[in-house]
Amino acid sequence: MKNPTKHKVEEAKYFLSMLKQLFEDDDEFAYNLSAFLSAARSITFYMQKQYKHRDDFAEWYCRKRIEMSADEELKYLNNARVEDIHKEPVHTGATREVGCSVDVILVPEDEQANETELEPHTQSSSKTSSLKTVRRFFPKFGEVDVTEFCESQLTKLTMIVEECENHFV
Q: At what angle do helices 57-70 and 146-168 cross, to 10 degrees?
């Protein structure tokens, strides 16, 4: 593989795109969130391995590590990954809309049928309701959607990778 760090960035992008596609399904969303968290966290591990032999990389990365540890969102992303990998799936909140519909059969007055002649399923109206997920969020960052949050953190990590490559390639 030519550039393992970039490969890991692309992997995280893939799982982010899956989060957006599978927004409605709780289980599939959780599986892909777990994969995203793991891939995103691995980006800097791959970068360290790939560039550790370059002159001044250790100094440069030490500064980056301090910056990342001061960033509350990146710190949360790392903690979420630790929770997801080692303890339990990361809990996300969801905002859902309830949709409800009622089917009613109307019979014109002159064509009224005897109730005993009606099929059982046409005697009563059928009600259906559905929940539609409109937003998912991490409880600590409730004002931001999970996919927007993850996209923002991936952008930060991608910028660090680009800065590294500008210095050490």
A: 160
Q: What is the pLDDT of residue 102?
A: 66
Measure the CA–CA gap between 31 and 51, rounded to whole angstroms: 31
154 plus 74 within the same structural domain: yes
Contact by Cβ (8 Å): 89, 66: no
Q: How far is CA 112 from CA 2, 105, 106, 119, 124, in A?
A: 76, 11, 9, 14, 15
Q: What is the mean pLDDT of residues 79-107?
A: 83
**Claim to verify: residue 81 and residue 143 sit in the same structural domain:** yes
Number of structural domains, the chain? 2
**CB-CB neighbours of 128 under 10 Å:** 9
pTM for this predicted structure? 0.80
Q: Are residues 31 and 85 in the same domain?
A: yes
Owning domain of residue 128: 95-132
